[in-house]
Amino acid sequence: NGGHQLPSLPLQILLYVNGVYYTFYFLATLAMIVYKSQVFSYPDDFLAPDLTLLLVMAVLEALRLYLGSKGNLTEEEAPLGLSLALTAGSVLVSIYFLGWQTYVLRADVLLNAVLLFAYGLESVLKLMAIAAAVS
Fold first, then answer.
1. Largest separation between any pair of C-alpha atoms in the chain
2. Does the global pTM surpass 0.85?
3. Exposure string over 75-109, b if 16+ CB within 10 A, otherwise e
4. For the chain, what is the radius of gyration of the CA atoms?
5. In this structure, is residue 2 part of a structural domain?
6. Percent of all residues in the chain with a pLDDT value above 70, rounded to a whole number
7. Is 36 within the bounds of a domain?
8. Is 98 a domain residue?
9. Residue 3 lies in a domain
10. In sequence order, what are the residues at sequence separation of 6 or more whose Cβ sits closer than 8 angstroms to the Cβ of residue 133?
11. Mean pLDDT, to the nearest integer, of 87-92?
12. Number of other residues whose CB lies within 10 A of the CB of residue 125
């Protein structure tokens, strides 16, 4: 095909699915933080950081998905690389919610395990797309 690479369809589908899943993840995690603050004695100085991190993660996620999609569709490695770097930030926040937030419920573990699996899969596909764009 004359050295021209097509955008990665699996990556594009996964970015879309991750966008839908993250919306669910955000709402579920927000609901659980509210629930935990009502049911458990949630220290006030821990509630704000948990909420702030969730909001920071939402911004990271929006940028990450936008750059990943843009980089994939335009076959440019720079937005894909930036998206991959932002994924690392999202992974760190997800690990925080998985194990280090004030109260960790089974639902937190499940939600974050699925999210981390999706990040891993997406990262592999992004690396393949970057390799294809560079070659």
1. 63
2. yes
3. bbbebbbbbbebbeebbebbebbbeebbbeeeebe
4. 17
5. no
6. 96
7. yes
8. yes
9. no
10. 5, 75, 76, 77, 80
11. 94
12. 21
